[in-house]
Amino acid sequence: MGSMNPKSYIKNVLYEIQQEGNQKVFYYNGYKCLIRRVMQKGMGYLCGYVGIHPAHSLFMLPPKMWPQLVKAHGGINWVGEWPDQKDGIRYIGFDCGHAGDMKPFMFVHYPEISKINDQYLFQEIYRDMNYVTSVIKLMVDQIITLEENAKRVMDEKVLKNEGENSQT
Fold this sequence. Notes:
Layout: H1 6-20, E1 23-28, E2 31-37, E3 46-52, H2 66-69, E4 78-80, E5 90-95, H3 106-109, H4 112-116, H5 118-123, H6 129-167
Antiparallel strand pairs: 1-2, 2-3, 3-5, 4-5
C-alpha cells in the first residue's frame, strides 16, 4: 500500500468490487462452485461455496463433520441448500468477514471509522474474487481426496469381507 491514503485505498477497493461483481458461478473438477457477496449495510465481503451433489458419496455427511474434514479461509461455517438454486445440491462454504478481513461497505456506510483510525483500515485485507476462487479450488481438491480415501477404505473392507467369506 505504501503511501496510499485511506480514501484512495477505499476508492481502489470499491472500484475492484465494481469490476468483479457480486456473484460468480463456475465449475471446477466437476463441482459447482458459487461466490456471493454479503450485501447488508456495512459488509460487502465475499463468501465461497462448493456444491455436493446428492449422488456424491459424501452428500449424507452430517453438517457438523465438514469443518473437521475440509479447511478453508476462516473455516467451514455454512452447510445447506441455496433456495434460489433449486438444484438439490448441498453447499459447504466459508466467508471472508473475519477479523483481519475488510468489510469494504463499512467504510462507505460508516465513513467515521476510517477517520477515527487510518491504521485500522490498513490492517484489514480485502479478499477478492480471485482469492475466494483459489480457496474454493483448494476445498474441491480436499473433497476429491476425501472421496478417494473413502472409496479406498470401502474397497479394502469389501476385499477383506470377501476373503473372510471365501475361507468359510
